[in-house]
Amino acid sequence: MTELSGGRVTVYETLLDRARRESLLRLKEEAIAWGATQVLNVRYETATIGNSSKQGVASLEVIVYGTAIR
Fold first, then answer.
1. Beta-sheet strands, E only, within 1-70
2. Which of 8, 24, 48, 54 has the fewest CB atoms within 10 Å, counting from its CB?
3. Which uninterrupted H or E stretch holds 9?
C-alpha cells in the first residue's frame, strides 16, 4: 500500500486506515442526521499536514464526501 524507501510503513498504514474509517463514520452520521437514505459517489481525499521529517508525519487529514439522497 504505502512504500517508503522500499518497505511498508505499517504505522502510517494503520493511521491512514483509522482516519478513513473515522471519516466514513462521520459522513454516515451526518447523512442520517440530515435525513438521507443513501450516499452515492463517496470519495476520499488525503493530505499530510505539517512537516514530514525524520521524526515522521506530523498529522494526516482525510476528507470524505459524497452525494446524499433523501
1. 3-4, 7-8, 38-49, 59-69
2. 54
3. none
Cβ pair 5, 46 in contact under 8 A: no
* C-alpha separations of 20 from 10, 15, 23, 48, 70 in Å: 15, 9, 5, 13, 24
Question: Radius of gyration (Cα) for the chain, nearest Å?
Answer: 15
pLDDT digits (tens, 9 = 90+) for 19-69: 999 999 999 999 999 999 999 999 999 887 776 666 666 678 899 999 999
Task: Report how far residue 15's alpha carbon sits from residue 20's, in angstroms, rounded to the nearest whole number.
Answer: 9
Nearest to 40 by CA among 56, 50, 28, 51: 28
